[in-house]
Amino acid sequence: MKIAVAGTGYVGLVTGACLAYKGHKVVCLDVDTNKIERLRSGDPVIYEAGLEEILHKCIADKTISFTTDYKEAYKDADAIFVGVGTPDKKDGSVNLSYINSVADQIAESLEKDALVIIKSTVPLGTSDRIESRINSNTKNGVKVELASNPEFLAQGTAVQNTLHPNRIIIGVKSAKSEKILQEIYKDFDAPKLVVKRHSAEMIKYASNDFLALKISYVNEIANLCELTGADIDEVTKGMGYDPRIGSSFLKAGTGYGGSCFPKDTKALHWMSNIRGHELKTVRAAIDVNEGQKLVLIKKAHHYFDNFKDVNIAVLGLTFKPGTDDLREAPSLSCIPYLLDDGAKIKAWDPVGEANFRKFYPNELTYCKTIEETLEEADICFIFTEWPEICNMDVKEFARRMKKPLVLDGRNCFKLKDIKDKGVLYLSIGRAPIKG
Ligand code: UDX
After folding, report:
1. Cα atoms in the Cβ-side hemisphere of radius 13 Å centred on 244
2. Which terminus has fewer CB within 10 Å in the chain: N or C?
3. Is 402's pLDDT higher than 90?
């Protein structure tokens, strides 16, 4: 079976590489020539554990190839995965221009019937619309059928999640399409759920939004813990023993970010609104998260009226550890505010610096070590729970900072470990540690 994959972002590239790794013949397509060149040479372009090794193996085995020539990629493909971006627009709706242009290129290129499989997260009903769009433009009676096969990969563990998924959702309208997808996934050991296409599209949104809701709920409880003297770590541990709740995604912090939760909550809310059925719980999750991203600034304001000439150390820039992605990261909500207020910022991140420099090339000082970042700082903000931060010697705060006020947005340290270390330590949903 010849498989083409449109888009070499997180979804497309990881999907293509993992299918090739399982022995399929895969051609990955992108409009970005430079990216395709780099991929051909074995450079994975994105920072993702295990991807480089898989890529090298597949290139050596000749199971994967890369091209910018869509006609070449699509003309005789049996299955075409679509993994291009579906960014959000200002009003929360989804920008489908990349999906539409892939659809038009498929219609223009196909010389035989094929299955087009949407991996990207798309609004409900998109499979129907894209199927009509392609079929009304194909030549010589060529017909496609659409399938919805959402991905659930998380950045940093994308390869692992794709090779060992907890479920494979097969959203199809015919037995023929199901057969092709069953064949593609035959060597994947995971429950396969065959559903209607609309259900598959909804499963993706409903899953992501549920997780976002869970995080916002726990963040609200954490904020209440601070007011009542309860400890969020103890509370979530107690909650997590209940199998109906589960212990994952109960980590309180300074809000969720990334390429999915913020976008998918806004999109589902928008889709429900235009159908006259507002999803109030999802709206609440979005609002709570926006507030939560600024929670460390609010805490800092208890000690500083403004941040003019205040020396600030920032540890962690990315939206979570294990990725260089900054999309919707709390650092990007807080740092602009601090800069506008006149703060002097030094920042450290093991892999996020290059991307952050694209937004702020000269406005802050980028440091190579945590220690250098802390030197002479009045406040330290922690936005990402990188292992280097969680495992650092907490005595470094008092040793290096001028006035050690540490605002930890990810609860990186156990309270007992930071006690008596000469810092004023404020975290999320836990008692402040003074001295
Ligand atoms: C997520 C989903 O996990 C994945 O299934 C989907 O396909 C894409 O979106 P990702 O955005 O890569 O993946 O990261 P994830 O690990 O889920 O974290 C998302 C955000 O939630 C991060 O900012 C993280 O810090 C935050 N988070 C996660 C919490 O604040 N608390 C938690 O308990 C878990």
Report:
1. 0
2. C
3. yes
